[in-house]
C-alpha cells in the first residue's frame, strides 16, 4: 500500500550506528528530521520473524508505536548460495553479542571452506534489504532491494560495515568495504530498496 509521505521527524528503527548513518544519508534530500530509535531510548524488539520483511515490519511498528512518529526499519543480511541462504536473517547474530563482524565473516569463510572440501566451490552471495515504513496508526509498506555478488577472502577495505569487506558486487572488482560510501549508496541493496520506497511514498507525492 502507499502511505502518506512522512513530514517533520522520522524515526530510524535501528540501534546500529552504521545502518542509521547510511539510511540517514539516503533520506537527507527529503527534508526530514531523522532520529534513531537508540537516541530516543526505545528498546530493540525481539526479531521473531522468519523473513526479512517480517522482521522489518516488526521493528518499524514497534518504533512508530513507541515514539508516536512515523518509523522506517531495515532488515537486511547476507544470503550465501552454498550455505542454503545462511546467515540470512541471522546475519547480525553471527556477529555475536558484541556485534563483531570480523567473527561473522570468519564464520562464513569457515563454512565455505567446509563446502569446498565437499566439492562445492560456489562463492555466490546476495545482500538483501527490506525497508518497512510504519505509521503510529499501524499502517505499513515494505520495499525490497537485492544485490548479487561473490565473496572474497581475506576481507578488504575499511568503508561500510557488517559483511561489506568480503562482498564484491556484480560488475565490480572492489568489495563494498573498498567502495566509497557515496558510490555504494547508488548501488547497494539498501539503495535499491530505498529507490522503491521513494518511487511509491515520496516521488509520487511531490
Q: Can you give a write-up of this model?
A:
This protein is an alpha/beta fold and 206 residues long. It has one domain: Maf protein, CATH 3.90.950. It contains 5 helices and 6 strands. It has helices at residues 17-27, 52-67, 101-117, 181-184, 189-202; strands at 9-12, 33-36, 71-80, 124-134, 140-151, 167-169. A 6-stranded mixed beta sheet has the order 2-1-3-4-5-6. The radius of gyration is 17 Å and the shape is globular.
Give me the secondary-structure topology.
Elements: E1 9-12, H1 17-27, E2 33-36, H2 52-67, E3 71-80, H3 101-117, E4 124-134, E5 140-151, E6 167-169, H4 181-184, H5 189-202
Q: If strands are numbered along the chain, what order do they take across the biggest sheet?
A: 2-1-3-4-5-6
The major sheet is characterized as: 6 strands, mixed
Quantity of strands, as a count: 6
- How many domains, as an integer? 1
Give the DSSP E fraction (strand runs of 2 or more residues).
Answer: 15-25%
Amino acid at each position: 500500500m502507499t502511505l502518506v509521505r512522512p513530514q517533520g521527524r522520522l524515526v530510524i528503527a535501528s540501534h546500529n550506528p552504521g545502518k542509521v548513518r547510511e539510511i540517514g544519508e539516503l533520506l537527507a534530500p527529503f527534508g526530514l528530521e531523522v532520529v534513531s530509535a537508540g537516541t530516543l531510548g526505545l528498546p530493540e524488539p525481539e526479531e521473531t520473524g522468519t523473513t526479512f520483511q517480517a522482521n522489518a515490519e516488526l521493528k518499524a511498528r514497534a518504533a512508530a508505536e513507541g515514539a508516536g512518529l512515523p518509523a522506517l526499519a531495515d532488515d537486511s543480511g547476507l544470503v550465501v548460495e552454498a550455505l542454503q541462504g545462511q546467515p540470512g536473517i541471522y546475519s547480525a547474530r553471527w556477529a555475536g553479542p558484541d556485534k563483531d563482524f570480523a567473527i561473522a565473516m570468519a564464520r562464513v569463510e569457515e563454512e565455505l571452506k567446509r563446502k569446498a572440501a565437499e566439492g562445492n566451490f560456489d562463492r555466490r552471495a546476495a545482500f538483501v534489504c527490506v525497508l518497512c515504513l510504519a505509521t503510529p496508526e499501524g499502517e505499513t509498506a515494505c520495499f525490497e532491494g537485492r544485490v548479487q555478488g561473490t565473496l572474497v577472502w581475506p576481507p578488504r577495505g575499511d568503508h561500510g560495515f557488517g559483511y561489506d569487506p568480503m562482498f564484491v558486487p556484480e560488475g565490480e572488482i572492489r568489495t563494498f568495504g573498498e567502495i566509497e560510501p557515496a558510490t555504494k549508496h547508488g548501488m547497494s541493496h539498501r539503495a535499491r530498496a530505498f529507490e522503491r520506497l521513494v518511487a511509491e511514498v515520496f516521488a509520487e507525492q511531490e
